Amino acid sequence: DAKTTQPPSMDCAEGRAANLPCNHSTISGNEYVYWYRQIHSQGPQYIIHGLKNNETNEMASLIITEDRKSSTLILPHATLRDTAVYYCIVRKGDTDKLIFGTGTRLQVFP
Amino acid sequence: GAVVSQHPSWVICKSGTSVKIECRSLDFQATTMFWYRQFPKQSLMLMATSNEGSKATYEQGVEKDKFLINHASLTLSTLTVTSAHPEDSSFYICSARDSGRAVSGEQYFGPGTRLTVT
Fold first, then answer.
1. Edge-to-edge strand order for the sheet containing B67-73?
2. How many CA atoms lie within 13 A of B90 on its CB side?
């Protein structure tokens, strides 16, 4: 699986948009980009995933660059409950395995 | 949404004993489940892939005789930590994908089991 690179930590003010970057420069054509988050001492929670096109759901938006070498997860209006570690994962579409990197620790402050 | 449960949520055992952790998909069937381990302030590490009706596939460096996995039904996988030692103390998490949905679909994670070996 392609390796991903994320900043170790970020801060965001409550109510503002949180933009979490992820670099996956070695991604191949059949690999998807997934985002999960883990709130302290809980199991990871699925957020969103995409292949080529930008995606949006009730939780977040995923912006994938045209060359697919990087992506950004956008939480449009961050709340204190969004404080968590966010993981960007690249996975092949024909395999179930998720290999977690070190993630970004997002701290939302009042 | 799909729910994965784990039991127990936490367990304390003595060194040398064995501990069984259950992972259940509550409202979907899962031919494949995964087991992860997470040490404090570290990321999740994939331990093994649990396959319904067949042997589990272990990641490199994970002892299959120490971490026994059984996937006897489409909704249940168990992880048994045999002859537990203090260094096995960790947060164990399972995940599963709905077999009726695309392979590229999301996986659902359980809430985790915190194991403490004294």
1. B4-7, B19-25, B76-81, B67-73
2. 18
The residue among A69, A100, A33, A21 whose CA lies nearest residue B46 is A100
Interface test with chain B among A98, A102, A104, A105, by most B beta carbons within 10 Å: A98
pLDDT digits (tens, 9 = 90+) for B63-82: 999 999 999 899 999 999 99
What's the pLDDT at A3?
A: 87
Q: What is the mean pLDDT of residues B44-49?
A: 94
Retrieve residue B24's tokens: 């259940």
Which run of H or of E encompasses A74? strand A70-75
> What per-residue confidence (pLDDT) applies to B104?
66
Contact A41 B91 (CB under 8 A): yes
Q: Is the pLDDT of residue B57 over 90?
A: yes
In one-letter notation, the amino acid at residue B29 is Q
Give the residue-averaged pLDDT of A68-81.
97
Inspect the interface and report whether the beta carbons of A45 and B45 lie closer than 8 Å: no
DSSP string, B28-82: S--SEEEEEEE-TTS--EEEEEEETTS--EEPTT--TTTEEEEEEETTEEEEEE-
How far, in Å, CA of B80 to CA of B66, rounded? 8
Distances, alpha carbon A66 to alpha carbons A51, A54, A71, B22, B92, in Å: 11, 10, 10, 42, 37
Q: Sort A103 into a burial class: Cβ within 10 Å, 0-12 / 13-18 / 19+.
A: buried
Farthest CA pair distance, chain B: 42
